[in-house]
Structure formats: structure tokens, C-alpha cells
Amino acid sequence: MTAPVGLVSELTDEQEMLVDASVRFMDATLPVAAIRAVADGARRDDTGYRAAAGELGWFGFLGAEPAGGGSVSGKGVVDAAVIAAELGARLQPGPYAGHSVVVDALTRAGEPAHEPVLADLVSGAAWATWAFGDDTSVVLGVSRDGVRLDGRVVLAAEVASCSHLLLGASGPDGFTQVLVPLDAPGVTLRPLESLDVSRRWGAVDLTGVTLPVEAVVGAPGAATAAQLLRQVHLAAVLVAADAVGAMHADFETALQYAKDRIAFGRPIGSFQALKHVIADVSLSVEMAKGIVAEAARALGDDAPDAPELVHAAKSFVGEHSVDVMHQCFQVFGGIGFTWEHDQHLYLRRMSADAAMFGAPHWHREQLVATVEAVR
Amino acid sequence: MTSTTPIGIDEFQAAARAWMEENLPRRAEGDTEVRKPWDIKDVPAEEFAAQRALQKAMYEAGFAGITWPEEYGGQGLSAEHQRAFDEVAIGFRQPDLGTLGGTTFHVCAPTMLAHGSPEFLRAHVPRILAGDELVAQFFSDPDAGSDLAGVRTQAVRDGDRWILNGSKIWSSGAYNADIGMCLARTNWDVPKHRGLTWFAVPVRSRGVTMERIRQINGNEEFCQEFFDDVELTDADVIGTVNDGWTVTQTMLLFERGGGGMRPATPTVGMKPDVVALMDAVGGWGDPAARDAAARVHVDDLVRAALGTRIVAAMRTDPMRAASYASYGKLASGVYDPLRANHMMRIAGESAIAWSDPDSPGAATALALLNSRFMAIAGGTVQMQRNTIGEKVLGLPREPSFDSGKPFRDVVRDAANWSGKVS
Predict the structure, then answer these.
(1) Per the domain annotation, does B195 fall within a domain?
(2) Residues of chain B contacting residue A375, judged by C-beta atoms under 8 Å apart
(3) Same domain, yes or no, for B230 and B322?
(4) Inside any domain, residue B31
(5) Does one domain contain both B260 and B370?
(6) pLDDT, tens only, A143-172
(7) Structural domain of B201
(8) Nearest Cβ partner of A371 from B270, B291, B312?
(9) How do residues A172-209 score in pLDDT, each as one tens digit?
(10) Which of A244, A248, A257, A286 to mutate to test the interface with B (most CBs of B within 10 A)?
């Protein structure tokens, strides 16, 4: 068993048990060898994995107890971030951040029409994914039969493995969110080739997709826009946690290599040229863990500084994970350029995490806007 | 152990509060300002004397050296008494002896208590607590900065005296000190860590010359001392002769202890210097300035979060606390200069010339001059990277060329360096 990431310095006993069981499960069920096999074209069936993960509680931290959910520490966002970090460290597939955002959104909306889907998402019977932001290239019309959607979602993580997609659309009452069953007529999934080979990426075309009006989540307009802000924050923290896990694993691998590899009669890690790089990398990893843990805590507490910490976390981790990746690559040298070495899997994962749900500069601009708003 | 029952925590706290209300000015609401070591401005002599008098009054009232032994002038009370005192003390302006106060009470005296002989401690510690004897560190040589054990200032035995020669540098606030805690080489024929001894050098002894160093930020806080045949006695030795490195380890622990790390307190918004600068240059409407300000704010928030994480790590793994503190030091050394650069980019020409010395542009320029302080002082970032690499991450050590042979040969061989290891 590889050691846990240690995103949060002081876990509760229940969190410790959760992490321990989760890490054992990942290492036993989907070790990196299995991830590689899928990347090389092996068929992937998530059903058993998803259900077992649901049993462990992964999908319920942000859900309500009547729906089978519940946090283990009383801080659901922290629980989810801790799991997200372990997923990233182990290159696990699945739309964890987006899925968690959908669970959170449906739980907050509390609408009876979504209860059956929510129960499936919490138990792990199904996965959902989330279209980032207020991209209004989807247009929503209202008709006698319900609502009609036309447009496209250009990128969604693991959409081919999901039963539902929560997307935003511009409608007659303003910004509207709709939970779209991906098997509805008029929905076309287009698988994409991707840099990240540990998760599958796809686009979604919507052509005259007609859904009952109950598919709308929350009240369109300002109320949904406010919910969207919460979703962006949650998604940012969880994907940053995923990247921190990948940073941690990449760094630990490079550290071990620096101790094992001999050149010029010495372990290469004894050379200050590499020792200092590795020390700087470990500082970045510690800082990244620190800010993501603080952001998760603040968001979970609805603290006034939560938005700033979230934007700082996503922006810092986005830039520093990629930098860490480059430095680790340099420590590996030529072996890092081979397919059989794991470092490129982390390179791919971190690069995707950095770009998804808001690139670093986007979060920096949001940060300034947040600060200006409270001045 | 004395036979009297120690004072109860509540009673002690009440007495401390009463004394402070009588003798110390209250801190204004929200005044939690902590001065950076490079921000120290000269305190006029009469004001410094008044602060010394305040320290003496505190000592005489029984509130100095709360946890220090009674036989050395302390109060001999528990850590809980100290905490109770600190709770109250935060609301008042405490006696302010500048950096020298910190060096005296938090670095030098605790090191003396750990290693000094009972006679030494009886002679010095009560005077220290009374503010009569402030202690500067005579630590770095001009020839030995990060290589602490490489000092060449030497004390030579002469009958029952020691004769001190050499020079010390970067002694903070030494111009106000009464004694200097001085690291000197006492044996050149053993490896460098084994021939060192600490002495208490009276600053106004014959043969001691002190100069203040004019710094790039306009201050003159640091001093350099020159020793010409300064006479010392065995009574001035701190710890064991030639075992000075053990004492040094203790001192570094007090010096780095915690590394000034505090858990983050939630605040909303950018730090005042960033806001003031953005306002002054109209930066809010400029995308490049906005991004630079955001980078500063991101790093400020992340560094605070790192502090929280380090404090927690020290709690769960106290054995490695000093090594963890290196992360805080390295973060300051790396991010202070980056921050200064971002601020300079925002400031533009306003940090090049100004009519108002209190303007944000002038402050930005000064911050640039101060920005490498933590990258160099108290062990360069390179030293922190070695500590983190070797002590935290377990990387193999650098080969050492000076730890196995007499220091006399180290100096000679280094001067004839060929790069070949025989």
C-alpha cells in the first residue's frame, strides 16, 4: 500500500479509517497497472468499482442523510477533498469533482423530482458530470411539453461513464441549470482524444432535447447564478485536491529515484543541484496541501474568506503542479520520456487538472473581483 | 523545590492584569502589528532607557522570567502561568527593547539556562531579567556566515585568562547591549565543530570596538565588533570549553523555534500595502496590474496556509519541529523577493522617484531593498534546502571536506583547492 497523501495534517479517527479503507480499495481494485491497461485500450467497466466506492461513502459527503449521504467528520467538503487527493495520487478514473458538485447541487435544491437520481448518485449506482461555468452556448426553450435544449458542451470529464450531466443554459428566465439524462433523444456524445489518459473526456451535442420541466434544477435567474458560484468553488477545491494528490505521488516517486539512482559514484540526490530542486518541489507540495486544506475547511464552514482561499488554491495549484511536474521530470531524466514510466501519467493528469474548471489566470481574475466586491 | 505553594493560575493572572493596568499602556483594538527584523528603527537613547526601566519594574513586581528558576531570579512557575500571563499581556504594550529584547530573552538567556554553570547563571540571569544586562549575539564572523562552525575569531588560554581576537558581524541591536554572547575557536587542532567555546563578552571591555553597519535600507541596526586582545576569564565561559557546538545547537533551536509561524487567522481582502499601491497607481483598471496583485494575494494566502500546516506538523511530530521550521524560512526566502518584484511591476515609475516618502511607491521601493533579508539572514535559502533535503526528505548528504580534519588544515587546504579528494 502506498502511503496516503496527507492533505489534512490532523484527521479525525473516522477520516483516518475512511482514508485507510479507500486507499486499500484503490490499490487492490485499480492499481496503476490497470489504469495503464485502459489507457492502452482495454475495456473499462465501472459498475463494480463505482458501487464499492459508494459503499465506502465517497459520493455522499455532500449529500443529505435521507438520500443515503453523510459526512464522516461533519465537514463534507473536507472529506471529499481528502478522497479527491487520494484519487489523484492513484490516477483513478471517474468524474469525482463534477459528480460531487452535482450531488451537492441536487441536495441544496431539495427538489423531489431529483430524489431518485440523487439516491443513485450517492450510492454509486450511477455517475453524473458537470459542465463548468456559465457557458451559455446551450439555449433553453420552453414549450408545452417541457423544456427544449439546443447547443453543445465542449468538454466534460468522463461523460461517457455518466448517466446525467448538469449543465447551464440561457433561458427565458435567465441562467438556468438542467439535469440532462444522457440517454435522452437528441443527446449525442462525442468521445475526444485527450492529453489525460487516466480519465476519458468527451463533448456533448444537444439537438432538440426535450425534457420535462422538472429537469430544471432550482429557480432560474439570480438564484441559480448564486448556486453556480458555490458549484464553481466546490469544483475548484476538489480538482485542486486531485492535482495535489498527483503532485504528491509524482514528487514521492522522484524523491525515491533521487535516492536510488547512482551517477558519478554518488546517489544523484546527494548533488545540491538536484537536492535543492527537490527541496523547492517539496515546499510547493507542502504549500499546495496547506492552501487546499484551508480552502476546503473554509468552504465547508461557509467562512467569509472561503471564496478567496478557493481561488487562491486553484490558481496556486494549477501553476505549481505543472512546475513540480517539470522539475520531477528533470530528476527522472531519460527514463521519464518512456511510456512505461509513470511520470507521464501524472504529467497528463496535472495538466488537465490545471486547465479544467478554470485555469490559474481565470481564478486570479475571480480573486481580484472577489476582493473588489468586499472593499 | 521551595516549600511554599505556588500561586494559583487565576490569582497570578489577576495580579498580572492589575500590574499591567497600572504600569503599561493598552494596545489599541486590532493592533497586532509585529515588526519585521529589517523594519527596526533606531529608538532614541532616552526612550530606550525608559523601556529598560519598565523591564526592571516588571522584574521587581515578579512578572519577569515566569518559568525560569527562582534561584536565578525567575518566578519558578509553570507553563500554564506563562500562558495565563500571555493572555493578558496581548492587550498591553510590553517593555520594548527592540530586536535586542528578543535576542536577550528568547535566544541567549534560554541557551545560557540550558548550558551555563550555576555560578554563571547566578551572576548574569537576574541582571538580564532586570533589564540591566542585555545580550547581543556575537555569532557570525565576517569570514563565516552560513558556515557557522567555520568561525576564526579565537580565544587563546593565557594562564588563568583567555585572550580574544577577531571580529563578529551582523549582531542585531548590539549598540544597546551590555554583553555579547560570543562564539570563538579555542582549539585549532581538532575538526571544526569540536574546538569551539562560547563566552560572555562585556561590550565595554578594553579591546572591544563596535561599529554600526550602514544598511541599504537606511537603517543601522546591525553592528560589527573588533576584538584586540580582549581579556576574559573562566567565569565568562558559557557551557563547556571546546563543546560550543552543543550550545550552538540549542541556540539555533531557540532562534528557529517555530520560525515565527502562526496559524492563519481568517481575513478578507488583500493586504493593506497591495490595496494602497493599486489605489495609488490606478491599478484596478489595468489587467496586468490586477494579475500581479492577484499573484501577490495568492502567495500571501498560501504562505499563511503553510504556516497553519507547519504548526500542525510540529504538534504531531515535535522531534522534527526544527526541520519543519525550515519550510517557513525557505518560503520567506523564496517568496519575499517574488512579492517585491510583483509589487515593483504594479508600482512602475512610482517606485523609482517620489516626492512623498510615505507614498506606496516609496514603500514598494523600500520593500524591494529588504526583500532578500530572509533569503540570506540566519542561514541562506541554500542552507534551508540542504536541511529540508537531508533532515526532512532523507536525501543523502553532500560529501564533507572539512568535518574530519583539524580546522587548521581545513583553512590551509581550502586555500589550495584542487577539486580532488585524496
Answers:
(1) yes
(2) 269, 275
(3) no
(4) yes
(5) yes
(6) 888 999 999 999 999 999 999 999 999 999
(7) 137-242
(8) B270
(9) 999 999 999 999 999 999 999 999 999 999 999 999 99
(10) A286
